[in-house]
Design goal:
The protein is built from 3 helices and no strands. The protein has 95 residues and is an all-alpha fold. The chain has one domain. It is elongated.
């Protein structure tokens, strides 16, 4: 019975360590990964925007501004039409 306080302290420390490993450590890892994904998505979006602007300016310097807008509109229309065709249709009720 002399070492009961030491055993109790060890038990409490072990339990606290397990609870921390199951909760706080996992949440810290998820938070770190979410922050890294947010930074990567922001930089990727920024790169895509700059690439689009650069390609439009290059196209407008080659063929002119008005035809460049027409080409861009046609491209976006084709992409939208493609997405409209491949969309999933909702299931009909009753069948």
């Amino acid at each position: 019975m002399d070492d009961f306080p030491a055993k109790l302290a060890d038990l409490l420390e072990t339990t606290a360590g397990r609870v921390r490993a199951l909760t706080v450590d996992r949440i810290a890892q998820w938070t770190k990964m979410a922050a890294l994904w947010f930074v990567a998505a922001s930089l990727g979006s920024l790169a895509a925007i700059f690439l689009g602007i650069g390609l439009f300016r290059l196209l407008s310097s080659v063929i002119g501004v008005t035809p460049a807008y027409a080409v861009l509109a046609g491209l976006l229309l084709a992409v939208g039409l493609f997405l409209w065709i491949i969309r999933t249709r909702p299931a009909k009720e009753g069948s």
